[in-house]
Amino acid sequence: MINLNVLALTQLTHLFLPQLVAQKQGTILNVASTASFSPGPMMSVYFATKSFVLSFTEALSEEVKQHNIKVLALCPGPTLSDFAKSTRFDVSEEDNAKSPFPASGEVAKLGYKK
User: Fold this and answer.
1) pLDDT at 85
2) CB neighbours of residue 7 within 10 Å
3) Which of 24, 50, 98, 109 is catalytic?
4) Which residues touch 79 (CB under 8 Å, ≥6 apart)?
């Protein structure tokens, strides 16, 4: 969780950011979560890493705005994804079909579009 949400995000940003600065334009969209805004008992590492994503994104946004680069955080709430399979919150396929929550692909497309 830490490797994905903290280390990989930071490394990928630093890998691609110089090219965006050279182009004097670009957008980075990081996926945070509503979990970014509060502590999460029983899922503390997940919530903490999502807080990192949001904080890092907001700080980096200020650092690069003079280069015409936008750094944005998408903060979706619950979504249908494979993430649930790795937690105790997994639901059946039948329950997924009835879920009021959007699929992760829908959330990603909306975030990209906006």
Assistant:
1) 63
2) 11
3) 50
4) 101, 102, 103, 104, 106, 107
> Measuring CA to CA, how many Å separate 59 from each of 52, 55, 68, 96?
10, 6, 15, 36
Fold classification of 2-113 is Rossmann fold (3.40.50)
pLDDT at residue number 56? 98
Total length of the chain = 114
Q: Which amino acid is at 3?
A: N
Asked if 37 contacts 80 with a C-beta cutoff of 8 angstroms, the reply is: no
Show the tokens assigned to 82: 């494979």
**Per-residue pLDDT for the chain (114 aa), expressed as one digit of tens each?**
999 999 999 999 999 999 999 999 999 999 999 999 999 999 999 999 999 999 999 999 999 999 999 999 999 988 877 766 665 555 555 554 566 777 878 888 888 888
Looking at 24, 46, 112, 113, which residue is catalytic?
Answer: 46
Verify whether residue 46 is a known catalytic residue.
yes
Task: Read off the DSSP letter of residue 69.
Answer: E
Query: Which H or E run contains 72?
Result: strand 69-74
